[in-house]
1-acyl-sn-glycerol-3-phosphate acyltransferase
Amino acid sequence: MFWRHGGGYRLMRSIIWLLLWPLERMTVVGLEKIPAEGGALVVANHQSMLDIPVIGTRVKRSITFVARDTLRKNPILRFVLHTCGGITVKRGSADRAALAAIIAALEAGECVAIFPEGTRSKDGEVKAFQRGALVVAKRAGVPIIPVGLAGTGAAWPAGQALPGPGRIGMVVGDAIAPDTPDAAEVARAAVAELVLRADAARGARG
């Protein structure tokens, strides 16, 4: 029963928070803009493997993360995804099963988080969003919540075995209606602006 009612997610979040706390100094702004209940699609920029732990440990409600299926090759990440109820997507193909699973989760009132760039940004710039990634919000009729992350790429760059110390900023923006014309570009522009604010916030903290 413990695992079925979110106990596994809460336990994993607590463990990850304890591991990150000594390393990362985080500045988080706008968490109240994430709905406390009901379906919502969180869209964020992607710089690092640290992005999921940062969002997962800072947002109070449970989040269903969408990740590429290749992460399951790592036994630790496979365990984390299984424990936290993550949804994996086959890279480079139209994964209808994953799409249906995401829509079902949103319609069930879950908060789902995706990284619409599709891969990590090597230079920190927010790349074009894959349009299909935001179609799920329209089909499920849920708000799109933009999130900007800064500093995660420097703390845990690609090729580095474990995260190092760093200053991280996270800023949550205003909700975007699911039926907004060209929602992918509107969301990308919002996230790009939030990344700049997140970078300024972490720098101001010193």
Remarks:
- Strands lie at 24-29, 40-44, 63-68, 87-89, 111-114, 144-150, 166-172.
- Residues 1-5 have pLDDT under 50 and may be disordered.
- The radius of gyration is 16 Å.
- Residues 183-205 form the longest helix (23 residues).
